[in-house]
Amino acid sequence: MKRKRLTPSDDMRxxxxxxxxxxxxxxxxxxxxxxxxxxxxLEPDVAEAFRDSASVNxxxxxxxxxxxxxxxxxxxxxxxxxxxxxx
Length: 87
What we know:
- The chain has 87 residues and is mainly α.
- It has a domain at 42-74.
- 38% of the residues lie in helices and 0% in strands.
- The chain has helices at residues 29-35, 44-47, 53-74.
């Protein structure tokens, strides 16, 4: 059985017509800046572990809190520079 060859088509269906003359560039740009929209796409296996965005935020906040705590414990003291003395 031969495979049917798919040819890409530039034609859109009639119900998808769009009037580019009335389009507004960056219509929601200012609103996104004001709301501070950030989007992070989770991998499917990670997304299964969380019920909703609130649980993701809670997990990330606890991770940040733990990293701040451990960072303070493992910070090495800064060395004083050794000056060479002339003999």
